[in-house]
Amino acid sequence: MQAKAFAADVDTVIKGVESAYSDVTTLQAGFVQISRSAAMGETKQKGKVALERPRKMRWTFTQPPGKLFVTDGATMWIWSKA
Hints:
Blueprint: H1 2-20, E1 26-37, E2 41-52, E3 56-63, E4 65-71, E5 76-80
Antiparallel strand pairs: 1-2, 2-3, 3-4, 4-5
């Protein structure tokens, strides 16, 4: 029963967020990504992300520099300086 209640709460939150931001067409933000694994330890990456409706994204990695992910919703392009 708790799983159903939790799912209902999540649905309510999602609907509220979607409603609050339904008129937003673009978004730009900075990000920090921290990955941890037993084999690689901890890695930290920083960059900027730009989103545009419908389905467009651009992830530019600035630390360390040299990676770019871009999608138009149908195709994703990945570029790496390496």
